[in-house]
Amino acid sequence: MQYLVSVIDDKVDPGSTDRQPAISAFNERLIADGYWVFAGGLADTDSATVVDNRGEEAVFSDGPFVETKEYLAGFWVWEAPDLDVALELATEASKVCDRKIEVRPFR
Amino acid sequence: MSDVDEVITRAHRTEWARVVATLTRRFGDLDLAEEAAAEAFAIAVERWPADGAPPNPGAWLTTTANHKAIDRIRREGKRAEKQQEAGMAHDDDPPEPHGVIEDDRLRLIFTCCHPALAAQSRLALTLRMVGGLSVPEIARAFLVAESAVGQRITRAKAKIKAARIPYRVPSAEDLPARVSGVLAVLFLVFNEGYLATGPDTDPVRRDLTAEAIRLTRLIRALLPDDGEVAGLLALMLLIEARRPARVSTGGELVPLAEQDRGAWDATLIAEGHGLVRERLAAAAAGVAPGRYQILAAINAVHTSARDIRDTDWSQVLALYDQLVRVDPSPVVALNRAIAVAELDGPDVALAAVDRLEDRLAGYHAYHATRADLLRRLGRGGQSRAAYDKAVELAGNTAEIAYLTRRRGQLG
């Protein structure tokens, strides 16, 4: 079962910025233990562009599709046998990243 | 009720969870397990009165439900897909012997009380899947619309399936944390039964208290060494023991001090005291007691006194002091103040209670306690105002009747 593991940051109260070494070590372990599928950190929401081509012509708008205090800062895709395993890893991930984590299964 | 009706009622009470749990393990699908179990009971209701009840109703129901589940899977013609989707461990083995920790029903309780499910959903799902209560029954018990209960259960089942919440007892290291969530659900069920809210319900819902006790007994049988499980069972038994004396024939709450102690259930008290003694022995050996064990001990002191005047209030207060350290909530502080009133007088207690106003102003028991203390201090006007507030906030009909009469006596 694959899970999308979202890292949620907060514009008003951001997580600490010195997490990279710890995240790298955590990633090494995810790979070694067979949970790792994919991961990526995302640039600031200001760099997002929303494209809407449902009408007659495509409309491009600057910025994210929704402005919120909390936003998606990065994500993993994990392969885990069940939610308990995914939640255990996510508990660790939240500490490692110093940010909130959302766990959501793929359909 | 005819003999067969009685057998069916009893089978539903004792076998429902086992049938659902066995099928869940076998087919890995809560929905299928529940539907097949419901079908098996429907067939029993139809056939047993004509054919007579089978010698082993549990085995009959499990076998019938199994056939029904297989029929359904065949009918839907997507067994392979179902298994793939199931999202829970699937296994074709015959049911395992009932080992201590691997009992199917225990797995079912832990699945229904998984921390990834919303608290309200855990409650509804446990009552439905483990308790076998119908959706309307659950809706009545918790004063919510049937559609809301149905939705909660559906959503929870869908999440169990989609997010692959496992059907198993948590590992040893997670167990204490997960058991406490299960106990919290069971205590909620018990409390709602004991002090039922709403103008149209009986003041005591015997069905809910009995169900909570039955499920706690089940957990106790499966986790006999868990102190808090024993504590919660003892607590429920000692509260339940006083039920026959707690509401007058006129439907009014009878406070502890005025209860006919001869009407208390001596068998339940003996069992509760036995459990408390067991936990006291463990505490003496250095195992720190948790919240339920301390609450049970407090209730053991109350049920040991033959008369309210014989109550060992210093013992009660010492236990509350211990409880405050484990659970420093304002409700505990409020109850502690009641013991303080007995030992140090209502003025000392009132000062302690008044300090809780910020946090308990919306809680009826805060105002009821204040009203009683003010009455004992001869401050009639303030007492009446506090009774008014308590009556306004209370939801239990017997309690409202009692508070109203007390207010009336102030003249």
UniProtKB/TrEMBL annotation, chain A:
Which top-level group of life is the source organism from? Bacteria
List, for all copies, the residue spans of the domain called YCII-related.
Answer: 2-98
Which PANTHER family would you find in this protein's record?
BLL7171 PROTEIN (PTHR35174:SF3), BLL7171 PROTEIN-RELATED (PTHR35174)
Which protein, by its recorded name, is this?
Answer: YCII-related domain-containing protein
InterPro entries, from UniProt? Answer: Dimeric_a/b-barrel, YCII
Q: Which family does it belong to?
A: Belongs to the YciI family.
Q: Pfam families, from UniProt? A: YCII (PF03795)
Chain coiled-coil ranges: none
From TrEMBL, chain B:
Q: Which SUPFAM superfamilies match?
A: Sigma2 domain of RNA polymerase sigma factors, Sigma3 and sigma4 domains of RNA polymerase sigma factors, TPR-like
Q: Where is the RNA polymerase sigma factor 70 region 4 type domain?
A: 109-160
GO biological processes: DNA-templated transcription initiation
Instruction: For the region Disordered, give the residue spans.
Output: 76-98
What residue stretches are annotated with the RNA polymerase sigma-70 region domain? 18-78
* Molecular function per GO: DNA binding; sigma factor activity
Q: Which family does it belong to?
A: Belongs to the sigma-70 factor family. ECF subfamily.
Put simply, this protein is called RNA polymerase ECF family sigma subunit
- Organism encoding this protein: Saccharothrix texasensis
